Amino acid sequence: MSDSDLIRSAVLKAPVSRSVVSRYVAGESVDEAVTVAAELRTTNRLASLDYLGEDTTDRARAEATRDTYVQLLEALAKADLTAFGAAEVSVKLSAVGQALPQDGDAIALENARAICVAAQAAGTTVTLDMEDHTTTDRTLEALRELRQDFPWVGAVVQSYLHRTEADCRDLAGEGSRVRLCKGAYKEPASVAFQDGTDVDLSYVRCLKVLMAGEGYPMVASHDPRLVDIAQALAGTTGAHRTATSSRCCTASAPPSRPGSPTAATRCASTCRSARTGTATWCAGWPSAPPT
Fold this sequence. Notes:
TIM Barrel
C-alpha cells in the first residue's frame, strides 16, 4: 500500500488522515522539513529528521536517499539549525542499501558514511534507526564501524526485544548516544515481548541501565508515563545529560562535535513535556541554548 501513488494521494488529501500525517511528517520536501525544524527550535525543542523510506532494493534509489540526506544537512546548516544539536538526522540503513541483494551491508555503510561526513561538516550528528530484529546485529556492526571515525553517531534500541537490556549495557559507555524507543515492527514471541505491560517494564529496565552509564540516553516515547519516569530517574541518578522526547518530537543529546571538548557538551536539553508544555535547559550547557 505504501508504494501506491493513489493511496498516498488519498492519505495526504483526506481531511482526517491529513491531520494525522501532519502531526508526524514534517513535509514532502527538504524545505518543508527545514521549516518545521525551525518551528521546533523556537520552542527549545530538538529535532531528528528522517527521510522516510526503507527496504530499498534499487541501488540508484539508495544513492538518491543518501544525496537527499546530504542536501538536508546542508540546508539545516544554512538555516543555522545545527548548532547545539538543534537538528540532526536519523537514517534507516535499509533505506540506503542494506536490503540490496548483493553487498547490501557494504553499500549501506558507504552511504551512511557519506551522510556522516555531511553531518560533521554541518556541525551536527546522525542517529542510526533500528528496524526489524533480523537487522539488529548488522545495524550495530555498522554503528561500530562508523563510530571509529564518527564517535558521535547515535544508536536506537527497542525495548520490546528480549535482547535490548543487554544491548543497553554494551552501549552505555562514555559518549555513546542511545535513543530508547518501544519498537513498532511486528515481531515473533521468540524475540520480542508481546504484552504492552512487559514492553513498558523492559523500557524502564533499559532506561535504568542507560541512566547509570556514561553515555547520552535519549528517551523517545509518546507515553507521558515513561517521560515522567525518565525525568524522575534523571533527578535521582544525576543524569542531566538525558534528552527526553514526547509527542512527535524526537530529541537527541548534543554531540561531541569535532574540535569541541567532550566535557563541554555533556549536558542536554529537556524536550517539551507532553504534560506540562514547558522546556528546561541543563545549567551546565556550555553556552546559550538555541533561540
